[in-house]
């Protein structure tokens, strides 16, 4: 079983507007609510692929109840750790005119030491085959929170900043930063060099998401570039989460890297075409699986 | 007592961001929640002035509970009509960089005939000296809902489109459209001519808010222009509600028009300087009361 952990889960609210104009009043034509946070989105993608996945997330207050209700309605296997604070919201504004996607993220509520211990215990009891730790750490969580969850478990880590750096001590099998997150924690502009830095600090492998340019994977078995068949326009919000879903599935099936990367790029494109984060266009996914280009790179 | 009615009340959420950039991800530095909707804002301004005011609004679901809690904490005398639908949210994004104010308004939940009848009954029982009907009518409310509330009562009507046109049949003492709302319902570009159209259709007087240019009042006693002492920068969201508060207070005190308009312009500026809709900067209000210019206009 794959277990995803989302310690700073959110209720994602999506507004569709005619066009986003700063300093103006907008009427939301369409309002949608769904459970979110990176790990929840990863679980949603894995569920769509029929994988055996279980989501562990925090939830508190009325917004946490709304999150729980939506997870149930979506049929996702999930376990919610009750917290005293109120679950945060993220608001996504989709412009029907130009397709722009503008996000407003609330900071998350703090968690207590007891709540964090409960979350840790839930993960331990599930004894996951592959663990996915995704998203930011909430205020109050220990700085090395992800490292302690990951230690001794085959894991994918998708976070940024200090939580990413501290998480490396747990020796995750794969970390998945995007180019900006990688630059931020290493200070290096070259993604391949920066990835090797993270491997020296504890990452088993590093898969860097490069937006429309696809993925760069730096692993002990070699370095690969995986690129999509063509450009796509849509909502890129959940694209990184789809990559993480593919990485977790590949780890659980012990697939070779080129296979994993092919699926990751195809799923990422399928997420761009899905209307909301966590949605994937399965028809695109199956078509694109054959079209993704994966080639080994020379070590620089 | 002044009673304000807000049939499509909202929980106003305000995010402060560093700058609003379409197609980008924003972290809300500061998140504030308060009860809103035009009538609630009007009541908040009147409460700040020490007036005897009572707010009647709809509230439903967890968002309605949050609205009720905030009203209570603010010390506003209010009566909430429970509805089965969930109270809507409005999201205001304040840019700390350029001061822009961008709003996203959810459509309101529908009300049933029973819920509307309950709201009507609450107004009847309060027997207001002055009634303020403000904001949009929710789906499910009768098209002439405001007209029936207003009929036989000294009232201020602040709404737009079909709700405004239908509301005129109740013969409100004053209606307060802005220039765009006035143009929309009359098809006329000249505010004075358009105002006289609304008076022929039932309005006792028309006070048109012209943004930074102040107010134009067309009344049976004469026509006046009231202009602020100078330009202000701030959050103009609640400025119209402050004007309505001044109109209601003036009607309840039977003040002469120049006096009412002076207070309306001063309060409107005080609302622009207040951080959130419904807040007024009382120091500015008192200074500006002496500085507002009110002059009679020739009938055209």
From TrEMBL, chains A, B:
Gene3D superfamilies given in the database record: 3.40.1190.20
UniProt keyword Transmembrane helix, yes or no: no
Keyword RNA-binding: no
Highest taxon, organism lineage: Bacteria
Keyword terms of this UniProt record: ATP-binding, Kinase, Nucleotide-binding, Transferase
GO cellular component assignments: cytosol
Domain Carbohydrate kinase PfkB: 11-275
Pfam families the record matches: PfkB
One Gene Ontology MF term: phosphofructokinase activity
Annotated family: Belongs to the carbohydrate kinase PfkB family.
Full protein name: 1-phosphofructokinase family hexose kinase
Naturally occurring in which organism (per UniProt): Amycolatopsis eburnea
């Amino acid at each position: 079983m794959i277990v995803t952990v989302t310690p700073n889960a959110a209720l994602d609210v999506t507004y569709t507007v005619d066009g986003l104009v700063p300093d103006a009043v907008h009427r939301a034509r369409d309002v949608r609510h769904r459970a979110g946070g990176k790990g929840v989105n990863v679980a949603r993608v894995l569920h769509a692929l029929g994988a055996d996945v279980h989501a562990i997330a925090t939830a508190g207050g009325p917004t946490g109840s709304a999150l729980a209700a939506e997870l149930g309605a979506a049929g996702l296997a999930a376990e919610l750790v009750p917290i005293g604070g109120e679950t945060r919201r993220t608001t996504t504004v989709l412009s029907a005119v130009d397709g722009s996607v503008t996000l407003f993220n609330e900071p998350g509520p703090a968690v207590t030491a007891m709540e964090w211990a409960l979350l840790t215990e839930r993960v331990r009891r599930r004894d996951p085959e592959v663990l996915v730790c995704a998203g930011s750490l909430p205020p109050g969580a220990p700085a090395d929170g992800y490292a302690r969850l990951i230690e001794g478990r085959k894991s994918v880590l998708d976070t940024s900043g200090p939580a990413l750096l501290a998480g490396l001590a747990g020796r995750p099998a794969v970390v998945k930063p995007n180019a900006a997150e990688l630059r931020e924690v290493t200070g290096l502009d070259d993604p391949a060099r920066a990835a090797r830095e993270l491997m020296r600090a504890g990452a088993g492998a590093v898969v860097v998401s490069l937006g429309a340019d696809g993925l760069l994977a730096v692993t002990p078995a070699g370095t690969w570039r995986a690129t999509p068949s063509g450009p796509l326009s849509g909502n890129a919000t959940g694209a990184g989460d789809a990559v993480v879903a593919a990485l977790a599935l590949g780890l659980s099936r012990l697939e070779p890297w080129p296979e994993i990367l092919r699926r990751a790029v195809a799923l990422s494109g399928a997420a761009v075409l899905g209307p909301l984060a966590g949605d994937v266009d399965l028809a695109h996914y199956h078509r694109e699986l054959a079209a993704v280009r994966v080639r080994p790179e020379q070590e620089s």
